Amino acid sequence: MTRLRPLPDVQTEVWLMTVKVLLATVMALSLGGCSLAPTVEKPEPSVPENWSSARLSANEKLPLDWWRGFGDPALVTLVEEALGANSDLQLAAARVAEARARLTGQQAEQYPLLEVEGSAVRQGPSEEVVNSAGGGQPFNDIQVGGVLSYELDLGAACECQRSSPGASPGQCSESRGRATSRDW
Hints:
By secondary structure, the chain is α+β, with helices and mostly antiparallel strands. The chain is 40% helix and 12% strand. The protein has a two-stranded antiparallel ribbon with strand order 1-2.
């Protein structure tokens, strides 16, 4: 016949579990403090005696052809070839110029447009016409005209162009009818 063991007491079981957890924690902390890595000392860099710490002052600027300062003809040739053949750099410069031109044009649309025209003519009597008007005396004809116009931006097209410079006028007109969170 098999012998039945008595059920363990709940307090004894809790006490044993607490001891196991504490023992595992102490062991983990003890092993975590051990380091097998060697102590490394930071080496001091050696600087040549003829080295000068040349820094630019606040009002000096780095020259655009700074690579020439090294005095290496091979480096100069390589950099000039790279700059000449770098279409990405040329394309980026063209895009920057285009963006500046667009921005200037869009900013100009915010202001009124003033157009002024003028003309001045001095006429005398014609020798071929016997009874010319004016009695044979020369006369001046001066005309000045002007137009002042301002576009009311009722559809917020200028605002759309300012907020998204790359957007076409068609895209801005499409977005005018849509309500956004800024509208509320």
